[in-house]
């Protein structure tokens, strides 16, 4: 089968940083589905894993943790899907990725594809939606439609996760302050439902005060945690909650991530890593299947929209290198999707 992968880390400008491959088609066992991949999207996780494998390997590393496709075959223990079902998912970071014609994935982290979307529009959603959903509802403890007058600051509002987080936070009835720094990203975030926009390159508190907000109840940090911690500590309410998705560099943890800044306010600080359930085979893995199905219903009901902003075709090494290059620029809005091998 066709696939795209790498044997060693190289700058994305190097033609061998991602190459076209032919590899053996896998066979499903246990609760695995064999999926005929129709569309994939790229995420910072793809870039991070590619960069972290700075060695020469005998077998290629196949990336990709967002896909939509058709169930080709099911393992003997599968209970949730059958051949022919249209599905979408984010896979597991501990297994070969979805940048291949056929892909194995545990059915417990797979959802039924939204009926109203094509494969590309669906492939834009899983990883970012799971991250935003778990960050808001599992980690921060936000409740849907509580009617409470609460606010959330979303740092990095125009990116893939932010684009979904804004929409989910709006459904939860929160006042949403997003951060963005360019006219096009500001317009995108406002179009998704952000009530106010501030610039993450400047101090937060004066900008919040300008729009009549003294402090926020929740913060979802989707950008550099170390860089933004002092600003977050200043604007979070006493006993507020902060969720971050970007780990601090281990070498700078003690000196740069000044957690004591949160002490006097008794602030809750939590991490969100959407691969935790699949990587560690937690007892509640099935929750990702359930939330993807619930998300599909919200999409089909017109309450959430896809964050697809750019399509590339076909799925090959050249187009994946282009997508990685765009992602590495740090200036992408929404999601880049590749479709059809």
Automatic annotation (TrEMBL):
The GO terms describing molecular function are: oxidoreductase activity; RNA binding; zinc ion binding
The record's principal subcellular location, in a coarse class, is cytoplasm
Query: Record keywords: Hydrolase included?
Result: no
Q: Which Gene3D superfamilies match?
A: Medium-chain alcohol dehydrogenases, catalytic domain, NAD(P)-binding Rossmann-like Domain
Q: Which UniProt keywords apply?
A: Cytoplasm, Metal-binding, NADP, Oxidoreductase, RNA-binding, Zinc
Domain Enoyl reductase (ER) stretches: 13-338
What does UniProt give as GO cellular component?
cytoplasm
Q: Give me the segments passing through the membrane.
A: none
Q: By its UniProt entry, which InterPro entries does this protein fall under?
A: ADH-like_N, ADH_Zn_typ-1, ER, GroES-like_sf, NAD(P)-bd_dom_sf, Quin_OxRdtase/zeta-crystal_CS, Zinc-ADH_QOR/CCCR
| Keyword Lipid biosynthesis tagged | no
| Subcellular location per the Swiss-Prot or TrEMBL entry | Cytoplasm
Q: Which domain of life is it from?
A: Bacteria
| SUPFAM superfamilies from the UniProt entry | GroES-like (SSF50129), NAD(P)-binding Rossmann-fold domains (SSF51735)
Describe the subunit structure.
Homotetramer.
Family according to the record: Belongs to the zinc-containing alcohol dehydrogenase family. Quinone oxidoreductase subfamily.
The name on file for this protein is Zinc-type alcohol dehydrogenase-like protein
UniProt organism field? Brevibacillus brevis (strain 47 / JCM 6285 / NBRC 100599)
